[in-house]
Each structure stands twice: as structure tokens, then as C-alpha cells.
Write a structure and sequence with these properties.
Blueprint lengths: L6 E12 L2 E13 L4 E5 L6 H8 L8 E9 L2 E2 L5 H10 L1 E4 L3 H4 L6 H12 L5 H14 L5 H5 L8 H13 L5 E5 L7 H18 L2 E5 L3 H7 L2 E6 L2 E7 H6 L4 H11 L45 E5 L2 E4 L1 H7 L1
Parallel strand pairs: 3-8, 3-9, 6-7, 7-8
Antiparallel strand pairs: 1-2, 1-4, 4-5, 9-10, 10-12, 11-12
Helix pairs in contact: 4-5, 5-7, 7-8
Bound molecules: adenosine-5'-triphosphate (ATP) and magnesium ion.
The site of magnesium ion has 3 residues, from helix 1.
């Protein structure tokens, strides 16, 4: 990466305070995303993928959340944003699409009204007529057939795939530079999934978007992303260019994930087939959180927090065994 990264997350920690103590959901994430780069965030349920994404938009319940570290987007300090600056930032600089469009779209308004409203909320200077014009453009951009008619449709009148297109249109209506996609195709049929992924990739290239894509599907990551980041218990345990991580997976957890691939079942392979359970985030061990499930566990793994070990250009993993091998 020659120029400054568009997204620059350093040592991010996020903890939620609650009745049963503190949930340490994110524990020191470093993640940079360049202009026009697509990073796939992989990891099993509860590893902190969604919390990391939501941190970028500061969507956590403020009273119960402790956040530390630094998040910069295009040089802006996201942690310091407040009030109108935060509203303007959401949607205009960074936008997000979710697994379930029905949660993002309001059932009582037409799709056109929601996109128009979204534009005017984030850009108060835009007239209603101009916003309506842009809403139509937004629907055309996501290749919705008969866009004029769809503007007047309610979300429930659309198919799942069409709703997902409408949500992408809504997310891109204010021309953000960063798109966060949290499992955007998991709820769809296989054929529709592929259409939506192709659309996302086309739009990403056309608009030069920086994208963080959360997925459970390694096949999707390989298809769409430039880089993979693997999360475990709120940490990135390995990251690198897609080809390098696939050819030379180095963290035992990544290796576990990729054994599916050796069995030729990459498309649709889910990540939850590694024996054992993820750790309790309210009492994380001092050492490597994967140690209790790790086949290669050895002396020190349960007490020492492994530092990143460089494996190639932009490819590193956090594992004590790798560090020892490199010595
Ligand atoms: N607002 C919240 N309050 C308390 N705990 C939360 C909150 N949001 C997330 N968590 C907890 O943080 C941990 C990480 O959650 P997160 O949603 O990031 O997982 P994930 O990797 O996205 O998993 P999945 O693949 O199931 O979507 C989980 O234990 C979750 O219960
Ligand atoms: Mg999630």
C-alpha cells in the first residue's frame, strides 16, 4: 500500500458491560484497508467481526460500551465524532449493508421514500426533487429492473434478492468511500447470492470503494476479496493477500478453516467445524485464546500473547510456534 490507508484501525478494543461482567468482544484489532481494496473478515460465530464493523460507524450502545484504540477513516478520527458530524459521516463516508435487508429497510415507507429520506438526512442541502432523482439513479445503479416502478414499492413487495439490491442502493446513495458488508448474502438462495456478490464486486470496481466484507464462506472470500483477515476471540490471528493465505495458511486456526478446501468443499464451507468451542469472552486466558483447541499447542501458549510473525509481504500470523520457528 503506497498511499495512506482509507481505513486505519489500530489496537481497537471493545468491551460491553453487562449483568454478568464484561464481554471483551474485540481485543486489539489492527486493520488497514487501502483505496479500492476488498478485505474479507473471516471467523466463526462470536469472534467479533460484526462488532469490529459496527465500531467503524460507532453503532454500539454508548452507555454500556468501552472502546479504546484508534479508528481513522480518510484521516478523520472516528472515535472523536459527535452529533451532526457523526450523522454526516454515517452513510456519506462509511456505509453498511446487512445480512437481513428487512432489518435495515423500514416496512412502512416505500423504497424510494427511504432512499430520498436517507440522502436528505445526510445531506440536508439537497432538495426533495434532486434527492428523488438520485434515488432513481441509485436503483438503476444496482440494476433493479423497472426502477421507476420499484421506487414506489414497499420492501415486502420485493423478493429477497431485490430487497438486498435496494439496501445496497440505499447504502450507496450518498456516495460513501467505504462499504461495510456484514454477511450480505447469507440469507439468500445460492443463485441469488452469486448475483449479489457479482453486483457488489462490479460496484466496488466502478466506484473505487474500499470494502470490508464479513463472510462465513471461504469461497466467497476467495472470489471477491484482495485480502483475508482471520479473526478469533476478538483478534486478527492471520492476515494476508488471499492467494498467500490460501496457499500458505500459517496460524493453526486458519489451517483448520482451510482443511475444508482440501476436501473440495470450499463453496459454502462453513467455519464452525473445528472441534471445541470458542472461549468465554468475559474471562479470556492470558495467552493465545485458541490454545485450548489447538493441535500444535506447546509450552508458553497458555501464558504468552503471541505477537505478529511476518510470513511474506503483508502476510502475518500471531502464533508462538511460528515465532519459535522463525528464530
Ligand atoms: N451490544 C452488545 N452488548 C453485549 N454484547 C455484545 C454486543 N454486541 C456484541 N456482543 C457480543 O460480542 C461478541 C462478538 O459478537 P459479534 O457480533 O461481533 O460476532 P460475529 O463474529 O459477528 O459472529 P456471527 O458470525 O455470529 O455474526 C459476542 O459474544 C456477542 O454476544
Ligand atoms: Mg456477525
Amino acid at each position: 500500500m503506497n498511499e495512506e490507508p482509507v481505513v486505519d484501525i489500530r489496537n481497537l478494543t471493545v468491551a460491553f458491560k453487562g449483568g454478568r461482567g464484561k464481554v471483551n468482544a474485540v481485543n486489539g484489532v489492527d486493520l488497514q484497508v487501502g483505496r479500492g481494496e476488498v478485505v474479507a473478515l473471516l471467523g466463526e460465530s462470536g469472534s467479533g467481526k460484526s462488532v469490529t464493523l459496527r465500531s467503524l460507524l460507532r453503532l454500539h450502545p454508548e452507555q454500556r460500551t468501552e472502546m479504546a484504540g484508534s479508528i481513522k477513516v480518510l484521516g478523520q478520527d472516528v472515535m472523536a465524532l459527535k452529533g451532526a458530524a457523526l450523522t454526516g459521516f454515517r452513510g456519506k463516508t462509511v456505509s453498511m449493508i446487512f445480512q437481513e435487508p428487512l432489518l435495515a429497510l423500514d416496512p412502512v415507507y416505500t423504497v424510494g421514500a427511504q432512499i430520498t429520506e436517507g440522502i436528505r438526512k445526510h445531506e440536508p442541502g439537497v432538495s426533495k426533487a434532486a434527492a428523488e432523482e438520485r434515488a432513481l439513479e441509485a436503483l438503476k445503479r444496482v440494476r433493479i429492473p423497472s426502477p421507476e416502478r420499484r421506487l414506489k414499492a414497499y420492501p415486502h413487495e420485493m423478493s429477497g434478492g431485490m430487497r438486498q439490491r435496494a439496501m445496497i442502493a440505499l447504502a450507496l446513495a450518498c456516495n460513501p468511500q467505504v462499504l461495510l458488508a456484514d454477511e450480505p448474502t447469507t440469507a439468500l438462495d445460492a443463485t441469488v447470492q452469486i448475483q449479489i456478490l457479482l453486483l457488489l464486486r462490479e460496484l466496488q470496481r466502478e466506484l473505487g470503494l474500499s470494502v470490508i466484507l464479513v463472510t462465513h464462506d471461504i469461497g466467497v472470500a476467495v472470489e471477491v476479496a484482495d485480502r483475508i483477515a482471520v479473526m478469533y476471540a476478538g483478534r486478527i490471528v492471520e492476515t494476508g493477500p488471499v492467494r498467500d493465505v490460501i496457499r500458505n495458511p500459517s496460524h493453526p486456526y486458519t489451517k483448520g478453516l482451510l482443511t475444508f478446501r482440501a476436501h473440495g468443499a470450499m463453496k459454502g464451507a462453513r467455519l464452525d467445524a473445528i472441534p471445541g468451542a470458542p472461549p468465554d469472552l468475559s474471562k479470556l486466558p492470558p495467552g493465545c485464546a485458541f490454545a485450548p483447541r489447538c493441535k500444535q499447542v506447546g509450552e508458553g501458549c497458555d501464558t504468552i500473547q503471541p505477537e505478529p510473525v511476518t510470513l511474506g509481504p503483508a502476510h502475518w500470523a500471531r502464533c508462538l510456534k511460528l515465532a519459535e520457528a522463525a528464530e
